[in-house]
Amino acid sequence: MKDFIIPQFPPGDDRDLGTPARSGAPVSLRVDGFDVTVPEGTSVMRAAALAGIMVPKLCASDNLEAFGSCRLCVVEIEGRRGTPASCTTPVAEGMIVHTQSSKVKRIRRGVMELYISDHPLDCLTCAANGDCELQDAAGQVGLRDVRYTPGDNHFDPSGTGARSQSEARLRMPVDQANPRYTPKDESNPYFTFDPSKCIVCSRCVRACEEVQGTFALTIEGRGFDSKVSAGTPLDDFLSSECVSCGACVQACPTATLQEKSVIEMGTPERSVITTCAYCGVGCSFKAELNGDQLVRMVPYKHGKANRGHSCVKGRFAYGYAQHKDRILKPMIRDTIEEPWREVEWDEALAFAAGRMKGLQQKYGRRSTGVITSSRCTNEETYLVQKLARAVFGNNNTDTCARVCHSPTGYGLGKTFGTSAGTQDFDSVEKSDVVVIIGANPTDGHPVFASRLKKRLRQGAKLIVLDPRRTDIVRSAHVEAAYHLPLRPGTNVAVVTAMAHVIVTEGLVNEAFIRERCDWDEFQYYVDFVRQDRHSPENMQALTGVPAEDLRGAARLYATGGNGAIYYGLGVTEHSQGSTTVMGIANLAMLTGNVGREGVGVNPLRGQNNVQGSCDMGSFPHELPGYRHVKLPDVREIFEKAWGVEIDPEPGLRIPNMLDAAVEGTFKGLYCQGEDILQSDPDTHHVAAGLKAMECVIVHDLFLNETANYAHVFLPGSSFLEKEGTFTNAERRINRVRKVMAPLNGYEDWEVTQLLANAMGANWHYTHASQIMDEIAATTPSFANVSFDLLDEKGSVQWPCNEDAPEGTPTMHVDHFVSGKGHFIVTEYLATDEKSGPRFPLLLTTGRILSHYNVGAQTRRTANVVWHPEDVLEIHPHDAEVRGVNEGDWVRLASRSGETTLKATLTDRVAPGVVYTTFHHPATQANVVTTDFSDWATNCPEYKVTAVQVSPSNGPSDWQESYNEQAERSRRILPAAE
């Protein structure tokens, strides 16, 4: 493959054009003799930049609104008095601009002299040397001398007026100090804040407000006493409300805010564009390197999912890729009681292949299976399901995507005809009402949350359905119009009650329904939903949602303009997950909120490639492209491509595999990138199933919890070490590019190919692009996708085919994929998991900003500073009656098991509800979750578990025995000399 070069202008110009782009009627002007035409509302600075003329600037940046404070960007405009700031001056027809007149040059040099007079002159030893906008601007304006004598300043700790640190040391009196000098704040694990180098341009403050929406930074004081503050005088960057997204660091034009990695390793000299491997937003990053050493990750401004923004995980938490815990040599053992022994790749693969073939000979071809992960690329996932079908000869393939979002595939497939969200993330900028159901975007999808909060600050309304008061309900400059704190497990009842209001109050968009939906099905649905038993008043006792609030929310969604629904695992991980998804689709069709920008039904996918895992045929009943394995014409496509016969019988899902293992009929598992012992429900049952298997192959970066029961460990490669694609929550296919060589010697798809060939296959892929070519040849929605297209366009959204050669940002524009939209009756059925005298509380689980899924990656970074352990959120009333105080150890018990963890008292949860995360294996929170699951897809019911909470003295006996077993299983024999 050719090396990927960052595309140059147009369209991929990476320069900062000073102010944001505008849209409007064309306006023509002349800048320094060059004619340029730009949209109305464009600043003179941006117009000049588009003409190839870069006006000096310090406070301006094209991801922030113009501020006009630095006065370095002044220009002259014929017919106007003075020298206006080009960043705040909009263009006008026929305008003639001079950016290099003697007058503006003189002004700029004077302004720059003032900045430099209060700035240390340590450029040669500064971490930003070569990457400093102040340094560049000084050169740009021709500053060669500073006329001001050293005096009162912010940078000299000695108070002697020294302009450099060496001067300060030489001249520092013992009894004198500079009261204006503030020492460097190094509290944040990822970046430093050096006030002595701050020019008070406000870019960091504005980035925190406009881009991130956290409002953690302010300018304190006035005039010469102005300085950036991260909160109260007692706060530093770690203790403040800063979420470490890096927007301030990226915005800073000096070394005031600087990555510690750059301070340590130096300014990077090359970059590779790739895609983040954390959540389903799919942010694009420039991985910036010195040689093969990764120095920093910088959000790529042309990334269509993130538009140049990032979160703490994607921006900073990449250190796990080179963590000491990584296993880089294959390992095998005959039994799980033995220690591991390192072997060469050939021996490990021969051992694994021999075991698997032997099991199939002894127990039958359906005795083995595969599990793949949503952390893996599309190409890797495709090969793993191909391994099951073309090499193992069965359909025993499953993925963690089914464990989180399979109800999305089922529900949206039945109603709209396709198993994916309807919009791109840009769409939220045109939403008037946003409904969030069972999702916590500020923690789980923070970059999307920042865009959402920006739209809310512009006046859009917000409705939140969640048992817990998440940050999006009320935060800086954002407050939900309605928060409906429904009781866990009552999603269907609440959504149906909203539909009841819309139907009975005449808020239905009948014209849309007659044109776009099946009218007979609608009539049948209306007869169901208008029944009085579905009214908010009759549902209030069941759901806990005040009837008046529910009616108000339904009216707002139906009448407030463009209404968009975003939902997450709080919808899907229920026994009625599929029913709720269909109910959400019903709401969108009832109100006509489908098929244009600003509306739609949008699942917020939890992991980076949940969508892609589903697309690639990882389910036991579906081949790639969501086509059932029983269909002869579909099987024929893959049989021709693969040269094998495909079993028409659907295979086993993960819980079926575990059941069959306990029964003695399922004996071998290849598990790539997934840790089912920590992430799947009912830990005792998972452990029993794994223990009963005779060959478990774990293919991962670390010895995870599942590897406690493994016989073969194949070291994996991180996202920085591989080529491929991820498909994010908006169906966007993004390129993953190799930043460095795989530390283990192979990309993950190569390992799967080696295993397949060791078992007798004859695969001969030489690059991940060839796997994508095969996907495109066999999967209609990917028909036009290739690495070349993605390199050219940056990314595309499927379906990408002859009808949409450059992808499809908005689905169902003229008609639904299924032809007509289908209304489906959503009868509420209470889960079998019920609270009672023995287990009176309801546990729901979720994630936190600083960690990701089971924490295997983020626990091996400095992110543990923010969340060193899982804690149980409990309402003060529930805590008081149980004698539980803040920070106490508590026993969390259910019908399935028990664990212990520390409690924190909060009114974020309602009385009767408790909440915890599942990021730390020491807690092993899923030991208490049950094996109840969604009726249609087997998606586990993580969000509703009846529990009891009581005081405890520390870790339970089970936790201690579990940890002992885990420690024993991770023994590795010393390498033979």
Could you please describe the fold and organization of this structure?
The protein is of the alpha/beta class and about 1000 residues long. It has 4 domains: about 25-140, Ubiquitin-like (UB roll); about 330-405 and about 610-795, Rossmann fold (3-Layer(aba) Sandwich), CATH 3.40.50; about 405-605, Dimethylsulfoxide Reductase, domain 2 (3-Layer(aba) Sandwich); about 840-970, Beta Barrel (Barwin-like endoglucanases), CATH 2.40.40.20. Helix content is about 30%, strand content about 15%. It has 30 helices and 36 strands. The strands form 10 sheets. A 7-stranded mixed sheet has the order 13-12-27-26-25-14-15. Strands 31-35-32-34-33-36 form a 6-stranded mixed beta barrel. A 5-stranded parallel sheet has the order 20-17-16-21-22. α14 (about 490-505) packs across α18 (about 545-560) and α17 crosses α18. The longest helix has 19 residues, at about 345-365. The chain is globular.
Summarize the structure in short.
Residues 269-325 form the 4Fe-4S Mo/W bis-MGD-type domain. With 977 residues, the protein is of the alpha/beta class.
Strand line-up of the largest beta sheet: 13-12-27-26-25-14-15
**Which strand-content bin applies to the residues?**
15-25%
Strand tally is: 36
Residue runs with pLDDT of under 50 for 5 or more positions: 1-11
Helix content: 25-40%
Main sheet properties = 7 strands, mixed
What is the CATH architecture descriptor of the largest domain? 3-Layer(aba) Sandwich
